[in-house]
Amino acid sequence: MKITLGKEKCLSQAPADIRDWGPWQFPRVFDCGDKIYLEYHISADSAKSYGNPREWVCSEDKGETWSKCVKGGRLLKNGDMIKLHQMKAIPEKDVELPEIIGTFYGYGFKRDYFDYNKIPEEYRRWFIERTSPGGPMKIEEVSVELPDFTMNTSEGVFPTPFFHQIKEGPGGSLWTFLYKHYIKPDGKISNYGASWFHKSSDNGRTWEYISRVPYEFNIEKDPGAAKRYGFGEPDMCFIDNSKAFALHRTTDGTGTGPLYITWTENTGKSWTKPEYFDDRGVWPQTVVLDNGVILAGYGRPGLFIRPYQNGKWHDRITVVEPMEYQTDTCSYCALQKISPDTALVFYSDFNYPDAKGVPRKSIMMRKVFTEA
User: Fold this and answer.
1) Does this model's pTM top 0.70?
2) In 145-284, at which residue ranges do the beta strands (DSSP E only) sit?
3) pLDDT in tens, 314-335
4) Which range of residues forms the domain containing residue 206?
């Protein structure tokens, strides 16, 4: 197994005076057949920023050249193009909320939690953006099955629900992965957040609840594990039509936490016990190449690519050298296959120099070449 990283390519740079956390971070890639779309965040990393516009660039030559564009999306097998749709959060004072069932703290913010089914229906609506062949983009309400789900306030606002990502699975199915506390059989809220898995068989119009993975931890690997939020930002990667693995973030406001891995042999209906995967990892992302290599991207601090082949994980490869916490990169990445043995990795670099040598927050891209 050999992994080679191509030359860095800068796709966008923030104004030199923007150094705060949030802008020019969190890239997301959308495969639209002959075109690749990339969006990235240009607002503060805050619930108050939900629904704000993002910047978009696109490429029609597999990443060789890029240009600014209107927002795009993922091309489905039926010809539709879809993307996530995030509504603006509502001021908490403007929402009539039911009784609080739990209060947790994240990154210094108090978050009150509520039974999803007791929230007014107007605030429980889920949306995607869909463009059908020959038609305009439409914001479309979709149906999501959510047993024992919860919603919460944060920073004085009440975020309405949204999808974090949508990926393709076997047979043209679509999958989305949420992370939330849940209501236990005794009626009380879980102590920790869990990873949730949903599947759509009708091009994203309805989403079936498949399973969730409650937080379990290895106290020897992570002595502070009991104080964490739980699992967050899961990603799922199919090995074949039924076997898959999922990676789960634990890094939170208490500090850097391990990445955990779980496996399923029955298309997500049940999962193995969470096991330690690596010592760090936010927003893990995966891509399967035609040569049988799977790439997983994650980090914080730093950013890494770790390959998997023939049932074995290999050592991680450094994309961004780790520096002091949150001074190097946001460590969120996006991965896109462009050939049987090559992928693109998109990421942020907080210190990439401009033409005058001034470090600026930048959205970057590199090719990842694999030799199986």
Assistant:
1) yes
2) 150-152, 157-158, 166-168, 174-180, 194-200, 206-213, 232-238, 244-249, 259-264, 275-278
3) 999 999 999 999 999 999 999 9
4) 2-27+87-123+141-371
